[in-house]
Structure formats: structure tokens, C-alpha cells
């Protein structure tokens, strides 16, 4: 940009960006890129965990369907999946209900990662007790 002062012409001192402005722009750009890469990494980890949980839920569904077909849910036991070697299951009786004529218990099925034992899914099954309730004492 040229300015004209009479018959002399001179150039403006401000014809580009200063070093400070360039550095400030680079700092802003680096901050934005760091934020984006951090968010991308977190999203990928969440996606991988969601995929593992979906596989665990599908494995639990297969296992419980097999147990229902055999009419037997093993209480307080553990095992590995044949079709999913990276997963294992564990059952435990969570709560027994013996009030009234209908006795039952709740069996919790936990699906875990075989490597780090992290719980991926849990299912509570209401199991009616097959043994009859004790007869109330006679009032006679």
C-alpha cells in the first residue's frame, strides 16, 4: 500500500503479519487440534467399550436362552463362553424371598471380560423356588 505525500511516495510499514500474531495463531490452532484429538480418542474408547458391552449382552442372551431351554440356572457358579473366549460369566444368588406361598430367589448373572475381570453386563433373573413352602402349623 502506498501513500502519497506530495511528490514523495513511501511504502506503509504494515504490509503483513507480525511474528507475535503468527505465534498467537499457531497457539490457537494447536489448542484446537489438541482438543479435537483428545475428543476423538475418547470417542474411540467409548465406541470400543460399547461394542464390548453389546457382545457381552448378546453372549448373556445366548447363555440364558440355553439355561431356559434346559430349565436349569446354575446358582453361585462361574464359567467361560465357548463362542466368546474373551468373556466369562458368574452367577450368584442376590436375594431370596421366602414370604408367602410363592418362594423365589433372584439370581444375578454377571458377564465379565476374561482378561481384566471388568463387569460388562449384569442380568437379574427371578427364579421361582420349586420346593413347596412349608405347611402352616395347625391351630388345633
Q: In words, what does this structure look like?
A:
The chain is α+β, with helices and mostly antiparallel strands. The protein has one helix and six strands, in the order ββαββββ. The strands form two sheets. Strands 3-4-5-6 form a four-stranded antiparallel β-sheet, covered by helices on one side.
Helix tally? 1
Low-confidence stretches: none
Question: CA-to-CA gap between the ends?
Answer: 116 Å
Largest sheet: 4 strands, antiparallel
Number of strands: 6
Rounded radius of gyration (Å): 34 Å
Average pLDDT works out at 83
How many separate domains make up the residues?
1
Secondary-structure element sequence?
EEHEEEE
The structure class reads alpha+beta
Strand order of the largest sheet: 3-4-5-6
* Percentage of residues in DSSP E strands: 25-35%
What helical percentage do the residues reach?
Answer: 25-40%
- Bulk shape: rod-shaped
Topology at a glance:
Elements: E1 2-5, E2 8-11, H1 19-70, E3 78-80, E4 87-97, E5 104-113, E6 119-128
Antiparallel strand pairs: 1-2, 3-4, 4-5, 5-6
Features:
single chain; 140 residues; four-stranded antiparallel β-sheet; 1 helix; 6 strands; rod-shaped
Describe the structure in brief.
37% of the residues lie in helices and 30% in strands. By secondary structure, the chain is of the alpha+beta class. Strands 3-4-5-6 form a four-stranded antiparallel sheet, covered by helices on one side.
